[in-house]
Amino acid sequence: MSTGRERGGYAKGRERRDAILAAANEVFAKRGFRGASLATIAKQVGLTEPGLLHHFASKEELLLELLELRDQHDDERIAQARAAHTTLHDLLVELCRQNADRPGIVRLFTILAAESVDEDHPAHDWFFDRYTLRRRQVAAGVAAEQDDGRIDPTLDADAIASQILAMFDGLQIQWLLDPRSVDMVAVFEAFLERLRRRR
Amino acid sequence: MSTGRERGGYAKGRERRDAILAAANEVFAKRGFRGASLATIAKQVGLTEPGLLHHFASKEELLLELLELRDQHDDERIAQARAAHTTLHDLLVELCRQNADRPGIVRLFTILAAESVDEDHPAHDWFFDRYTLRRRQVAAGVAAEQDDGRIDPTLDADAIASQILAMFDGLQIQWLLDPRSVDMVAVFEAFLERLRRRR
DNA sequence: TCGAATACCTAGCGGGTACTAGGTTTCCGA
DNA sequence: TCGGAAACCTAGTACCCGCTAGGTATTCGA
Fold this sequence. Notes:
Two copies of one chain form a homodimer. By secondary structure, chain A is an all-alpha fold.
């Protein structure tokens, strides 16, 4: 029920919270949750470690709020893209294109998703739920395209949804390791293109 | 030029080294390189931390030897599978099937690959080289299949190679997070099947 | 069987970790 | 403007980190 903002506080505090979240995004993206330290994040926004902990009770709470914020941003981003693009194909390509301009966020997700495979990881449940949801959303989109005759109707929508997410994640790893090795957007689009073709 | 075994040593020592590498595999797979501690690994094989460091000079050296060993194993595994399966399709499905029975190793690679995106990570170069090599190998295999008429010759072999590796990695993440959500082998095979079909 | 190499231990170093206690300064609404 | 809340600091806790120094016990080839 809480929005994470019911703390109120002064304007200065709210700005700091945002700055801390931005710094945490960077540091977690570079070193993962376990490899990152609160001291590093604190220093990046000109605070001491206890200064940071005044705004977020613990390292784990910081991560969880970061993910919650990201959920909101992503939902908005997807809603906007959905409004601007009529087909699933165009929508997915647009999201991929956006990611190609935000390596920081792509890194954050790539490393956190891998870390979170461990059930003890604080973001495990979040990623579990996220993948479950996204698979359902994409599968629904695929099914709709099949009804409209834009995707081969003999394909299994759930399997295709898993494949689309897998291709998204997998290409990101290669792209992050060596951006020049893979034209992420083009290769992803070529993959989607093959779904469109009929036998 | 070194094989990592020129140290010689007694039989007991060689057994311990193997046991340490096996334990490191487990612990790194669960917590990543940065999240893992030498003490945990040492305890798992009944050693103290300095006892472990008698066999491996540093945590980083332990990781690097683990990866070197894995390279050897994988090359053997691929060579065997290549001998037993005539087509690229069958070969890849067989490797995927084997991975479905070794979640520990899949976890190790998933988390280390994500961590190693950071250039400061000790395994960065290893993963960079590994992906470069695998892409080249798979692209060559795809090109051969195109010559034989088993894959649509209008497709770009390099792009397809990236897609195959991406699908491999991406499905593994979903499968590790929730094995029941994805039939990894079946979904991967369905993906490959679509390459075979002509327009 | 003897002795040098190996295996492994205890003790400790320097530094980092998340987090707490308790205080001072700054902010801002009543 | 005044007073309580919020922002933030210094100091400190208890513990973990990779790694080293220096010793003893074990192994196994000559």
